[in-house]
Amino acid sequence: DAGVTQSPTHLIKTRGQQVTLRCSPKSGHDTVSWYQQALGQGPQFIFQYYEEEERQRGNFPDRFSGHQFPNYSSELNVNALLLGDSALYLCASSATARGETQYFGPGTRLLVL
Amino acid sequence: GQSLEQPSEVTAVEGAIVQINCTYQTSGFYGLSWYQQHDGGAPTFLSYNALDGLEETGRFSSFLSRSDSYGYLLLQELQMKDSASYFCAVRPPSFQKLVFGTGTRLLVSP
Known about the structure:
The complex is a heterodimer.
Chain A: E1 5-7, E2 10-13, E3 19-24, E4 31-37, E5 44-50, E6 53-57, E7 64-68, E8 74-78, E9 87-94, E10 103-104, E11 108-112
Parallel strand pairs in A: 2-11
Antiparallel strand pairs in A: 1-3, 3-8, 4-5, 4-9, 5-6, 7-8, 9-10, 9-11
Chain B: E1 3-5, E2 9-13, E3 18-25, E4 32-37, E5 44-49, E6 53-57, E7 60-65, E8 70-75, E9 84-90, E10 99-100, E11 104-109
Parallel strand pairs in B: 2-11
Antiparallel strand pairs in B: 1-3, 3-8, 4-5, 4-9, 6-7, 7-8, 9-10, 9-11
């Protein structure tokens, strides 16, 4: 049983560029949440997708957008990258929208130069 | 809003017992979760307390007291591989997100 997978594992971009990160949830899971984790800090909630719709959103600007596909996989897009967007981006999946037990993927480490 | 505070770092030796505390200020939540994260890795779910009291899972136990706004993770028979960061987290009512604590870095020495 494959767990949560994310791609790519590492990414280097320059300021102003755009990036797309991808996530495939654990088998049987239909809800995908995205988190940003800066070095030495806890993960911060970006948004959650369920039934192909953004259900809830954290305190992140509109430069952060996403999508969920019919197979429950998801993408996170970040436009007009800033140096401060450098972080580990984590995808978490869960079986329902309750979210108590979320299973995290290995993350994508984004470096913005 | 929600605020969860943890000690920044805890050190212990192999075979010992260590307790990682989590104190919080929140208007309400659906239980307290604990996650382990090794350097460069993903957070891994360890334990969940929906109700007050102690939950035991192997070498790990977790405790919650809503009246004291306090919880802890207890790690017994420490092993070198337990060196990692540990986060407490809650899900606020009417929200589907997890709010994570500040994190505790556990260093286990021989």
